[in-house]
Amino acid sequence: MVAENKRIKIGTWVQINSADIVECIAISGFDFAIYDMEHGNIDFLALEALMRAGEGKGLKSVVRVQENNPALIMRALDLGAAAILVPSVSSSVVASRAVEAAKYAPLGSRGACPFIRAGGYLVRDWSAYSEKANNETQLIVLIECKKGIENLEEIISTKGVDGFMIGPFDLSVSLGLPGQVGHPLIEDIFDESARLAVKHGKEFYGVDFQVNKEGVSEMLPRWRERGINTIVSGADKAVIMQGFSEISSFFNQ
Question: Which of 19, 60, 86, 92 is the most buried (most CB within 10 A)?
Fold first, then answer.
């Protein structure tokens, strides 16, 4: 169990192409933002600007690419992403493809270029840089379907996978429980995921869609009991909608 006073690292989803929102997230005390290129309106030109805005305020950049595609993974990493989140990972074979794309040789086959933002635009010692990138750049796999849960341990234990995340909304649909992200079956999957994270020494990113203090205070003890200290809470659109809805409700009673 995590001690009650242990600090939780918190992140949130960013789907809106707005550097102002990213800066607000950073200033508000979040540790990382997940730039959602799969469901948001963020392209690579926008991504670079958003990462600059966040990193300037100390916000770690995690990029959810559109698919498990080597070109997309390479571009996000070249722009300086601290971590890559690869969606729809359903087996160790699929996970290994992501590792191959995200890591430089000899761990993988990520394309090499010395003039990238991630390397300070001019890498003079490629061996040292590539080793550092392989060690410090995190590959996170997103498991979000029934098949992925059936292969959960083999995915988590895949060499080169640094962390993982369970996508509760997609998973609820895949399990025939659409939208029931708090269903006991999904809670059981979270419990098992936490156990496997400890067993295999991988970081488990807990996902919870809370957008206010009441929701966070209710869910946080469950994650602490699991021993999880990295949590993704809310999303830019959801938090904005919640805030404006609370204000407008006072005028429409």
Answer: 86
